[in-house]
Amino acid sequence: MSLSRKVVLTLAGNKAVTSFVSNYGMKLGAARFVAGESLRAAMDRVKHLNDEGLIVTLDHLGESVTSREEALEATQAAIDIFDAIKENGVNSNVSVKLTQLGLDIDHAFCLENMNRIAQKAKETQNFVRIDMEDTPRLDVTIDIFNTLVDKYGKDHIGLVIQSYLYRSEQDVINLGKKNVNLRIVKGAYKEPASVAFPNKKDVDRNYVKLVQLHLQNGNYTAIATHDEAIIHELKAWLKENRIPDNLYEFQMLYGVRNGLQRQLVSEGYKVRVYTPYGMDWYPYFTRRIAERPANAFFVLKSFFQN
């Protein structure tokens, strides 16, 4: 992990820093990365993105809830997104985090909530993606995912795999046997060198390897990266290996590399924008800064302009 990223993640956990950032809210620059605090505001952004040829996955922000009431509220929020997508006729699916649905409270309770969401995805002929969180929650996340895939099918539920983990190659191999839909990311959590590659070049090398591995096995792959060098390398590989266009998509975060998103669309690629919204934006916002500390410059610039 880079020193700058380590510093940002450490500061993010400081109570004084948390209070300061939360008090200033969206005015501090979070609006660049968060599509509003309400579902209505987010839906307006989805329509705009669709008009530009981009498809979307919506994420109601929140994680690590401490009560069943909070988990049930988050579950209902995800269900409401599916209804809003259908009512507004937009091209979007949904992403969720299991800690937001009660994973740390009770695994069975979390699975029950996730069942409701997956059932709604199937009823509305849509799709839900389970985001991957830090390593202590990895095995149970995969277990819950496998249970849901067996029940609802791979067309309605997918998972995220992080290339900075040593174990991810074996996870991709195992999950590939079910022909599931995977989003491959580099990873944004603070992990020890005992489980994660400490050097960026190794994370990058493993990222390309995982994408190619899953596609070579004939499985749908979401290529989630803003790294232009990796995108260029994979575009050449996709063409050389004649990978069908309906087997992959590029994915990027809302507010990050907007020009590159539009460029890929103009070249005929399918591009999905991970679009978060909601009141609980702080943890997500700090991870975006940690991933690319240069984003802090934009935040400071926005702050002093307001």
From TrEMBL:
Pfam families: Pro_dh (PF01619). It catalyses: L-proline + a quinone = (S)-1-pyrroline-5-carboxylate + a quinol + H(+). Residues 43-299 form the Proline dehydrogenase domain. Signal peptide: none annotated. Pathway: Amino-acid degradation; L-proline degradation into L-glutamate; L-glutamate from L-proline: step 1/2. Binds 1 FAD per subunit. SUPFAM superfamilies: FAD-linked oxidoreductase (SSF51730). One of its GO terms (molecular function) is nucleotide binding. Substrate binds at residues 97, 287-288. This is proline dehydrogenase.
